[in-house]
Write a structure and sequence with these properties.
224 residues; alpha+beta; eleven-stranded mixed sheet; 7 helices; 33% helix; acyltransferase; transferase; L-amino acid N-acyltransferase YncA; GNAT_dom
Length: 224
């Protein structure tokens, strides 16, 4: 399977082998016909999807990939808001459970929502273990969390009662500032085109579009 990269972090959630294709050649697509599994491929929006559709792939999402240079970050502030590297793991997971609705696996009609939820919960748990979660504090309350790795912003979850209050801009700008302090010249993230709230948030912070990819999935077999 020369054209398939295993994704064990997804396999544990779906009880089937999972892969990401490294290219869209006919040989690579034929491999997805021969082996049971769930497959992901990301392509530019201008690429002809006909070969993908012919081999059973289906569109699930468009990911917008904005970046922000350190000098362009817009900082916001509000009294009572702070960041913390110490937090209750279970409290972060409770926020995560209600926060993710725009993921590509939630949009995949072959993946039950409970499995998509499990995938994101496991991801947050992994980030906690690796010290890649920052808690967002409002006074003494944990209002949300920010997940990152290297120069990439991965996840942002805000407790429901704190949404639509303009607090996400403050939280996220402070977390980005802290991430920049690790020595990066720019940060990047990846946002579903369906997640308009997040797109507007990161645009307000100074992120600008650099790349866009379309995501296709294929299921050859069954998830159980």
């Amino acid at each position: 399977m020369n054209h398939l990269q295993e994704t064990p972090w997804d396999k544990r959630n779906f009880n089937i082998n999972t892969y990401e294709l490294t290219n869209t050649t006919e040989e690579a697509l034929q491999e997805t016909d021969r082996h049971k599994g769930h497959y992901t491929i990301k392509v530019t929006p201008l690429e002809n999807p006909e070969p993908l559709l012919r081999h059973g792939f289906y569109y699930v999402d468009t990911l917008i990939e904005p970046v922000c240079r350190k000098k362009d970050l817009n900082l916001f502030s509000e009294k009572g808001i702070s960041l913390s590297n110490t937090y209750d793991n279970d409290e972060i997971l409770e926020i995560a459970e209600e926060a993710f609705m725009h993921g590509r696996f939630h949009r995949d009609f072959n993946i039950p929502d409970v499995m998509a939820d499990k995938r994101y919960m496991n991801w947050v748990s992994d980030l906690q273990e690796n010290g890649q979660i920052i808690a967002l504090q409002y006074g003494n309350d944990t209002a949300g969390f920010y997940g990152f790795t290297g120069d990439k912003v991965l996840l942002l979850g805000i407790r429901e009662e704190y949404r639509s209050r303009g607090l996400a801009k403050v939280f996220t700008s402070l977390a980005c500032k802290e991430q920049f302090q690790a020595g990066y010249d720019e940060l990047r993230t990846s946002i579903s085109a369906a997640n308009v709230a997040s797109l507007n948030l990161f645009y307000a912070l100074g992120f600008r579009l650099r790349n866009t990819v379309d995501v296709y999935h294929k299921l050859n077999g069954e998830v159980t």
